[in-house]
Design brief:
Layout (H helix, E strand, L loop, with lengths): L5 E2 L5 E4 L14 E5 L3 H9 L6 E6 L3 E3 L4 H5 L5 H4 E3 H4 L6 E5 L2 E5 L4 E4 L2 E4 L2 E4 L3 E3 L17 H19 L4 H7 L1 E5 L3 H17 L13 E5 L11 H13 L2 E4 L3 E6 L2 E6 L2 E6 L2 E4 L3 E3 L2 H9 L9 E2 L5 E2 L2 E6 L4 E2 L13 H19 L14 E6 L2 E6 L2 E4 L1 H14 L3 H17 L41 H19 L1
Parallel strand pairs: 2-10, 3-4, 3-11, 4-7, 11-23, 13-14, 13-19, 14-15, 21-24
Antiparallel strand pairs: 1-2, 5-6, 8-9, 9-10, 12-20, 16-17, 17-18, 22-23, 25-26, 26-27
């Protein structure tokens, strides 16, 4: 049921949303609203199991995404259903949880209300777990040319672009043009960039070798550009060195001390201390920057709380903000510096899960009049997978590489996977890829169809993402990029003749 409209401003009105509780015995119980169905939000929901509180979980997607494996979707190793689980399936059966689809646009802390889908909803406690997105450091015009890898659609678009480039190269007689179409630039040498680079190298050099008869897999180029002096800078130098050796053995080129100056279709201009370098590539992918959800700044505007340069909310030791103990911020949206060394918790699945679980238990303890022990983060370490059986890992000072690190990586990721069915399907596909060197999810989708009379199909390769500018909007098509490449090659040949 909805109450009569309540006016927000002279020109805008909203409706107050009053839904029936999930069960009758929860009527009148404290209402906890959780915004975000990622690692932290789902863990918070599960930690409220059995409590006499009413939980409303709101997310703009109806599924939980296992983001650490997006690169495997991007390279055809697994499908979307292996890394995404419907929220109603994960927590919807819980007695005290109601799942709603929508995006929160406003927070009114004094009134203890949020606004989503044009409606207002009251809360007693609010947990914000909306995570983070990608940032291009002020160059948003690059987004359509160099897709990031933060959501499911990004990963599927990366896969589509790679497969389309290979299909086009298969029909190209010019060997130089083939090399251009088989070249990929990855901006960012962190875990996501290294994992994507390793998976793409295996895909383009091994998994696809038997499928494309006209291509020479050895001419495929995967180039990682990073402004630092090593990959995986957040890990110990020993792990970085091992990762670099593994990637280079796979044929991945590492371009250090490089800062991207411009990206146009078919070309990346990289600045270095020695001067600018032009890299011509059919595909460019972005893993270099992360920004917190916009709700952090919204909350800062309405409460005066502080945010850091990345938009993360500076929280107190119980993940609340000053003067609002009922509001908790967890996951990538918060900057939690109450650690032994004063460094913020890293934006990874482990810390997010621990935050979400602790905050839920702390709220339960408060409602039940109990004391709750302070939050202490247990650092499981960090790891990155680089090939079928190669990885690096730093487990609380124990540094591993190769097959032992890969085995630990696989066990850890299967353990964090929230859905048991996905664990089984992932294990089967990983084992199949190890044995056969083949990928199970290489369907080329997102293409316009002449057989289905529906509008809104994808644009020809390559395209922009979800209301982002397409290649055509930012100055060219792939055909133009190839033509520019040919002209550049001809100019180079004339110069040297």
């Amino acid at each position: 049921m909805s109450s009569p409209p309540r006016v927000m401003t002279a020109s805008k009105e909203r409706f107050f949303l009053e839904l029936e509780p999930p069960t009758e015995e929860l009527r009148g119980k404290p209402h906890v609203v959780i915004v975000g169905g990622g690692f932290a939000g789902v863990k918070a929901c599960k930690s409220f199991k059995g409590a006499d509180v009413r939980i409303t979980l709101i997310d703009k997607r109806n599924f939980n995404l296992f983001q650490p494996l997006l690169y495997q979707v991007a390279t055809g190793l697994v499908s979307r259903g292996d890394v995404a689980t419907p929220l109603r399936q994960l927590v919807g059966a819980q007695r005290n949880v109601q799942v709603l689809l929508g995006e929160v646009t406003e927070i009114q802390p004094d009134a203890k209300e949020i606004t989503f889908n044009g409606k207002a909803m009251a809360y007693d406690y609010l947990i914000l777990a909306t995570g983070s997105g990608s940032t291009f450091f002020g160059h948003e015009d690059w987004r359509g040319i160099a897709p990031p890898m933060k959501i499911l659609e990004h990963a599927e678009e990366i896969r589509r672009r790679v497969l389309m480039a290979l299909e086009q190269a298969e029909q190209t007689a010019d060997p130089q043009e083939r090399r251009f179409l088989q070249t990929v630039v990855i901006v960012g040498g962190g875990p996501a960039g290294c994992e994507l680079a390793g998976a793409l190298s295996e895909l383009m050099r091994k998994a696809m070798a038997r499928d494309f008869r006209q291509l020479d897999p050895t001419t495929a180029r995967i180039i990682v550009v990073d402004p630092g002096d090593r990959v995986l800078r957040a890990m110990p130098e020993e792990c970085s060195t091992a990762a670099a050796s593994e990637l280079e053995a796979m044929g991945v080129e590492l371009f250090f001390h490089g800062r991207v100056q411009s990206i146009v279709p078919g070309e990346v201009l990289v600045g270095t201390p020695e001067g600018d370098h032009k890299i011509e590539a059919a595909n460019v992918f972005w893993t270099a920057g992360v920004r917190a959800s916009h709700l952090g700044r919204k909350l800062a505007e309405s409460t005066g709380c502080e945010v850091d340069r990345g938009g993360r909310v500076l929280v107190q030791s119980d993940f609340s903000i000053p003067n609002h103990p009922e509001i908790r911020i967890v996951g990538d949206l918060c900057s939690y510096k109450h650690t032994r060394d004063g460094k913020p918790l890293p934006g990874m699945a482990g810390p997010a899960t621990q935050m979400g679980g602790w905050v839920a238990k702390d709220i339960r303890a408060t409602l039940e009049g109990r004391q709750h022990k302070p939050f202490v983060w247990f650092d499981f370490g960090s790891m990155a997978v680089l090939s079928r059986l190669g990885a690096v890992a730093d487990l609380r000072g124990i540094k591993l590489s190769g097959k032992p690190a890969w085995l630990l990586w696989a066990i850890a990721h299967l353990a964090f996977m929230p859905d048991e069915e996905n664990r089984v399907s992932l294990l089967i596909k990983w084992l199949w890829a190890i044995v056969s060197q083949q990928r199970s999810s290489l369907l080329l989708t997102g293409m316009p169809s002449q057989h289905v009379g529906l509008e809104g199909g994808s644009a020809p390769f390559p395209m922009g993402l979800n209301n982002e500018p397409s290649i055509a909007d930012v100055g060219g098509t792939m055909a133009q990029a190839i033509e520019n490449f040919r002209e550049s090659e001809q100019e180079t040949a004339n110069t040297h003749s």
